[in-house]
Amino acid sequence: MCRMETLVFFFLLCLKNPVQTSGCNLEPSPNHCVCSLRDLQQSERQTFLTCLAATTYELRGGDLSHLGALSNIEPEPQLIDILESLTVRKLIFTDVVVPEALLPGALAFVSYAPLVSALEFVNCTFLRAAQGPASAILGVKVSSLRFHKVTAEPLDDRFDLSPWRSWLGDLENLTISESQVTSIPCKMGAAFTALHLLDVSGNHFQDLSLSSSFCERAFPRLQVLKLSHNHLTSYETVCKSLSHLHRLIHLDLSQNNFLLEVSSFPCTWPESLLIFNLSATGLQYTGRSLPPNVQVLDLSANSILTLSLSNPGLKGLYLSNNRLQAVPSVKGLPRLEVLSLDQNQISRLPSEALQPLTHLRSLKAGLNPYNCSCRQYIKEIQALATQRSLLPDWPHDYICKSPPALENYLLDEVPLSSLQCNKGLVSHGSVVSLLTCLHLLLCWLPT
Ligand SMILES: *[C@@H]1O[C@H](CO)[C@@H](O)[C@H](O)[C@H]1NC(C)=O
Ligand SMILES: *[C@@H]1O[C@H](CO)[C@@H](O)[C@H](O)[C@H]1NC(C)=O
Ligand SMILES: *[C@@H]1O[C@H](CO)[C@@H](O)[C@H](O)[C@H]1NC(C)=O
Ligand SMILES: *[C@@H]1O[C@H](CO)[C@@H](O)[C@H](O)[C@H]1NC(C)=O
């Protein structure tokens, strides 16, 4: 059978005669076997034994268009025994031209290898099949399917779903990223009855195509949806299109550009939503409706100047790379555990501003233009770093911006003894209150 050049499955087929095979090596990890199709075609086959224990097989580079006719490969009984004993879990095809007609046969073949649960196509070109598979695709255990940078003709109504329905209905994870997809036909979405995770990052989804792709019946069990880096512009339209996904837990809308909308209508996000990513979406203010039970909110890389949130359940708030001039009000966030404020315009971390956060365990606040004019300003940051061990980016990212004499000093290396407030603001009274404040802080902090 090796002689038949059924290259897609050469590694499976040729196991029957392991010493005869070729062009494969265990890179980049001992569990990951990479075989080059081109080498295989040219060179004499060398040993394949090195790859026997790998759990990931990757097949690279080649044109399988002449294999379209081999869509009904029935393995011999001997071969089935071998397939059933394989340890491979993931198959990856990289830089390959694949006729769609080959897929049903390929899947049938793979279904004999009991542990294969993930299939990936990276930078592959799919050639359109004249017709769909003759019979239903049954018994496929692949539950995770990934297409990255692939080219195919649009999956419009040409696609007859019925032979695929059984498998699609069992699929748990589907990724179609950076593949210029503009929409998913509603009836196709409806076939993914068990899908947990859908990642369509880096495509061309727009507000309108989103509502048709996520029609009422589509993806009824979806928990994770990644729509990062598409062409979405209306926050409210997106919300409306997705509001019926009552099991959605994690929504990634990062790297879209939500325009400022003058008149916006209210919309309610699913109550199930806990992780919400609005990183790099052009947001300037956050007066918009947020998921009511959100626990992790990523607002990094926007243009936010001020912020006032009230979300009693919020545990993680990411505000890196915005335009905040001061620590935002955190009174409405009693459960916050992780806060990032790095790369803003914050000049101080006053201890009283952070005091309400009794559950805080990590505060990233480096790369801000810190004011080192007063000893107190430095002390309060040091206290966070040393006593509460809160600052993961301390000390290397904490640099003085002012006064000019201390510019570019690490906060940790400023000679405190020589320091006093340059405006003489620290009068007797404020020194006393400062000491009282520090004293209270120290007593109150757990040691
Ligand atoms: C994608 O695959 C084609 C062959 O199918 C190859 O010529 C090209 O270099 C690959 N591109 C990348 C970025 O790997
Ligand atoms: C699906 O994706 C999730 C998250 O990436 C992962 O934890 C899970 O193992 C995947 N499931 C399958 C069947 O591959
Ligand atoms: C949000 O998305 C950005 C980029 O798209 C990513 O770097 C970041 O890790 C995500 N945040 C969370 C909390 O997952
Ligand atoms: C730094 O703090 C001092 C003392 O409060 C103040 O006089 C000064 O204006 C601040 N510098 C900047 C750049 O904010």
UniProtKB/TrEMBL annotation:
<feature type="signal peptide">
    <location>
        <begin position="1"/>
        <end position="21"/>
    </location>
</feature>
<dbReference type="InterPro" id="IPR001611">
    <property type="entry name" value="Leu-rich_rpt"/>
</dbReference>
<keyword id="KW-0433">Leucine-rich repeat</keyword>
<dbReference type="GO" id="GO:0071222">
    <property type="term" value="P:cellular response to lipopolysaccharide"/>
</dbReference>
<keyword id="KW-0472">Membrane</keyword>
<keyword id="KW-0325">Glycoprotein</keyword>
<keyword id="KW-0677">Repeat</keyword>
<dbReference type="GO" id="GO:0006954">
    <property type="term" value="P:inflammatory response"/>
</dbReference>
<dbReference type="GO" id="GO:0034142">
    <property type="term" value="P:toll-like receptor 4 signaling pathway"/>
</dbReference>
<keyword id="KW-0333">Golgi apparatus</keyword>
<dbReference type="Pfam" id="PF12799">
    <property type="entry name" value="LRR_4"/>
</dbReference>
<dbReference type="GO" id="GO:0005794">
    <property type="term" value="C:Golgi apparatus"/>
</dbReference>
<keyword id="KW-0449">Lipoprotein</keyword>
<dbReference type="InterPro" id="IPR032675">
    <property type="entry name" value="LRR_dom_sf"/>
</dbReference>
<dbReference type="InterPro" id="IPR016337">
    <property type="entry name" value="Monocyte_diff_Ag_CD14"/>
</dbReference>
<dbReference type="GO" id="GO:0045121">
    <property type="term" value="C:membrane raft"/>
</dbReference>
<dbReference type="GO" id="GO:0001530">
    <property type="term" value="F:lipopolysaccharide binding"/>
</dbReference>
<keyword id="KW-0391">Immunity</keyword>
<protein>
    <recommendedName>
        <fullName>Monocyte differentiation antigen CD14</fullName>
    </recommendedName>
</protein>
<dbReference type="GO" id="GO:0001819">
    <property type="term" value="P:positive regulation of cytokine production"/>
</dbReference>
<dbReference type="GO" id="GO:0005576">
    <property type="term" value="C:extracellular region"/>
</dbReference>
<keyword id="KW-0395">Inflammatory response</keyword>
<keyword id="KW-1015">Disulfide bond</keyword>
<dbReference type="InterPro" id="IPR025875">
    <property type="entry name" value="Leu-rich_rpt_4"/>
</dbReference>
<dbReference type="GO" id="GO:0046696">
    <property type="term" value="C:lipopolysaccharide receptor complex"/>
</dbReference>
<dbReference type="InterPro" id="IPR003591">
    <property type="entry name" value="Leu-rich_rpt_typical-subtyp"/>
</dbReference>
<keyword id="KW-0964">Secreted</keyword>
<dbReference type="Pfam" id="PF13855">
    <property type="entry name" value="LRR_8"/>
</dbReference>
<keyword id="KW-0336">GPI-anchor</keyword>
<dbReference type="GO" id="GO:0009897">
    <property type="term" value="C:external side of plasma membrane"/>
</dbReference>
<keyword id="KW-1003">Cell membrane</keyword>
<dbReference type="GO" id="GO:0045087">
    <property type="term" value="P:innate immune response"/>
</dbReference>
<keyword id="KW-0732">Signal</keyword>
<keyword id="KW-0399">Innate immunity</keyword>
